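ok so for the tutorial part 2 we go from a plain amino acid sequence to predicted structure tokens. step 1 is just haveing the sequence, like this:
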Amino acid sequence: MSYRTILVNVQPGPHSEQIAACACRLAHAHNAHMVGLASTGLNELVYQCNAAAPGVALLPDDLGVFQGSARQALQSFSALAARMGVASPEQRLTDDNLLAALAQQSRYADLVVVGQETDPCALRAPAGAFAPEHLILHSPRPVVVVPAADSQHRHRTGTQIGERLVLAWDGGMAASRAVEAALPLLRQATLVTLAVFNPGAHYNAHGALPGADLATYLARHAVSIEIVVREAGDAVSDALLGLCGETDADLLVMGCYGHARLRELLLGGVSRAILHHMTLPVLMAH
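step 2 — the prediction. this is what the tokens look like for a chain of 286 residues:
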């Protein structure tokens, strides 16, 4: 398995260059085709205007503002991709809801890259900004979420992502999917730390030596790992982020936990806490 197509959200925003740069690093490292997607949000805007004031038409100048902003974002994405040595970038402009467009286009990609959404007001924007967990739960592909707070030097433009990984493992289905999705990154990493927290929390989730079976499986894929087994109680998300700091990790790989989509969205959990407090990029699979 390899990443041959990477889809990235390049919607205009305060962290759009940071998100695109992360995707560019991944595309360059894996020689992947990269698709930058931006939405004008016009379909949703027209629907809302017709619902509020039926028969009132939007003027071309009004539409041009949204179209111009999205096109400028795509041009900036292409320029950044060229500077970072991406061999095969592609622009894609849509008038549809951004979340729906990303979920649909993710079917034709190996990996999706989006940003952390920290502003609740942005979720009501006409272009359809969204919380990343909504895409993770509706995309058939793994999603890399880039933190809004770019506090570590290696996350900036021009540096690599995935050299030092923390792999969260609870023996569950979502975590297994995340492992499979991250194999191209795991093979290239210089350090992979396998984190097993609260190994006795779920009956029969691990063998006699928590993490050993997964270590054997990954060894057959030429992936060497270091296993960390700890008790974390209810503070699993804090423990994971703390371990990422201890190991100087530049990527966290984990499943999007939760037994039901509605429960995960409404009640939260480890994945929701990580997405809220993340300090490094996170690859999630559901």
